[in-house]
Amino acid sequence: MPAVSETPILDVRGLSVAVSTDTAELELVHHLSVTLERGQTLCVVGESGSGKTVTALSIMRLLEFTAPVRTRGKINIDGTDIVGLPDEEMRRYRGRRIGMIFQEALESLNPSQRIGRQLVEAHHAAQGLRGRRARTPGATDRAERKARGLLAEVGLADTDRIMALYPHQLSGGMQQRVMIAMSLMSDPDLLLADEPTTALDVTTQADILDLFRRVQREHRTACVFITHDMAVAAEMADRIAVMYGGRLVEAGPAADMLTAPRHPYTRALLDCVPQAEVRRTGGLPSIPGSVPGPAERFAGCLYAPRCPRVTERCAGEEPGLAGTGDSRVACWHPATGPVDVEAPALVAPPAPSGDFGTASPLLQVRDVGKTFGSVTRLSRRSRQVRAVRNLSLSVARGEFFGLVGESGSGKTTLGRMIAGLERPSSGSVAVGEDIVLTGGGVQGDKRAFRQRVQIVFQDPQSSLDPRYTVSAIIKEPLRELTPLRGDALDERVRELLDEVGLPASTAGKLPGQLSGGQRQRVAIARAIAPEPELIVADEPTSALDVSVQGQVMNLLLDLKRERGLGFVFITHNLSLVLSVADRIGVMYQGEIVEIGRPEAILSPHAHPYTRRLLQANPKLTIGAPVAPYPAGT
């Protein structure tokens, strides 16, 4: 690690950020203090709503462009407090001294400009070149040479071709690499990365994390890396800061935080990380409840309503940060000493009630293929892409079947064919014994097919109509596929909301008024409303916090047990499905290269691609998984 200067590159002291609304001033971050040395990585960890992104945007002073914000405290960059700097001086820090990588690369890149032009503009802005000075051949040539060099450095070959493309012509991983290159165009001293690997498949995520480490080492750049995943923090961090409800609740060296965390929230976040070798047939660990919003403030510790160790003092008095040396914790009852837990061992699942995938399966996919074709306007030549290739599988009633693979492997296309949203180019999909889907459409009762098979999409925000209330969203399939009307329909909506763990008051809300986890529960309620036999779940937890992921997964497992539902659960997270699935299919380039029980998938004889997916999953590499607090402590 490079030698550190006496002056930290980032020194945040007593930072508080509040935003004004029509009725009140809401505090988003409260009295936050962190430091970061040159060449180090600070991972800021916490669930959505904990204040991580607000902190990063405040360091860049970008919040003031979107809302009336009041910032108190100090943000020192290499010894200079930037909180009170005039706009013109602050512009010299953005891009030049501080670079930022946003969560959604495609939303951050200009869709109407080619990649090369955007990189050149980023360089000119950092150098303060405007107007005629920016358009001189010399300035443009220098910027283009630097852009090509950085694109090659972040692992993008054929840089001339990449420079000529638009953002939508790149894959998600390539877009994120372009964002990293853009942030380095001015050689910043400090890099802020806001969830840069969220929703990427595990192999792409592993590549991006490796890239971050290499770039940081070669450029000696300090990095604030925001994530909700403690496994990612374990791979990236020199130091970890855990935020909750806008407050710093624990901070310290990564090795200490991962082997001997002191705050119960830190322990809970660690426990929520799926472990490939640990079977969770009874459900995944999760944190009950949710992070309080800015308006939900009360006298005691904000984590008290969710904490298993809460006492009367916790509920009535907020703890301050305390500690010695590099470690601090805000808790009245912190744990002490290291946690000694044996390394996990694979627990074989109980014998199934039936032989999954044999006689009378619920779903039978036979030699299914799907080819997409297009004709270019200029050459009139057809271009065909084979997304799925002569694939066969079966799913039994009540089976939880995990379908795993990278982006582009054909998982979603197969799921859409099973759900009847795409017609196969060849082969057939049979649901039960009397309904078959082929290229010619549904053979049998179409209404019965729609009732038997439902789908839960990856992003509930885009799959739920923002103009409809939750009640109207759930009623839609009930009106189409059941005879329920009037009071009986309203009662059924209340029952479904209760079944997915949502209060009855949710019925009158719009999707935009709900959290991500709540929206996904609404999507599940809509899917189970017509009493289906099979649910296709397409990456339903990929963009959720690990704690919310556990809640949603446990809901699906409860529905499986209580209703006997079959599931085709599509994901790129092999560790997750190894924890809960009955069987797993691994897809690669439109084919299933391996199907087996979890213990077979984990065996040394697994397919090389399966082993690659396992190696790419982020792991809690420092220390063993952390056990929950013993009862009575």
Automatic annotation (TrEMBL):
<dbReference type="Pfam" id="PF08352">
    <property type="entry name" value="oligo_HPY"/>
</dbReference>
<dbReference type="InterPro" id="IPR003593">
    <property type="entry name" value="AAA+_ATPase"/>
</dbReference>
<dbReference type="InterPro" id="IPR027417">
    <property type="entry name" value="P-loop_NTPase"/>
</dbReference>
<dbReference type="GO" id="GO:0005886">
    <property type="term" value="C:plasma membrane"/>
</dbReference>
<keyword id="KW-0472">Membrane</keyword>
<dbReference type="GO" id="GO:0015833">
    <property type="term" value="P:peptide transport"/>
</dbReference>
<comment type="similarity">
    <text>Belongs to the ABC transporter superfamily.</text>
</comment>
<keyword id="KW-0813">Transport</keyword>
<dbReference type="InterPro" id="IPR050388">
    <property type="entry name" value="ABC_Ni/Peptide_Import"/>
</dbReference>
<dbReference type="InterPro" id="IPR013563">
    <property type="entry name" value="Oligopep_ABC_C"/>
</dbReference>
<keyword id="KW-1003">Cell membrane</keyword>
<protein>
    <submittedName>
        <fullName>Oligopeptide/dipeptide ABC transporter ATP-binding protein</fullName>
    </submittedName>
</protein>
<keyword id="KW-0547">Nucleotide-binding</keyword>
<feature type="domain" description="ABC transporter">
    <location>
        <begin position="363"/>
        <end position="614"/>
    </location>
</feature>
<dbReference type="GO" id="GO:0005524">
    <property type="term" value="F:ATP binding"/>
</dbReference>
<feature type="domain" description="ABC transporter">
    <location>
        <begin position="12"/>
        <end position="270"/>
    </location>
</feature>
<dbReference type="Pfam" id="PF00005">
    <property type="entry name" value="ABC_tran"/>
</dbReference>
<dbReference type="InterPro" id="IPR003439">
    <property type="entry name" value="ABC_transporter-like_ATP-bd"/>
</dbReference>
<keyword id="KW-0067">ATP-binding</keyword>
<dbReference type="GO" id="GO:0016887">
    <property type="term" value="F:ATP hydrolysis activity"/>
</dbReference>
<dbReference type="InterPro" id="IPR017871">
    <property type="entry name" value="ABC_transporter-like_CS"/>
</dbReference>
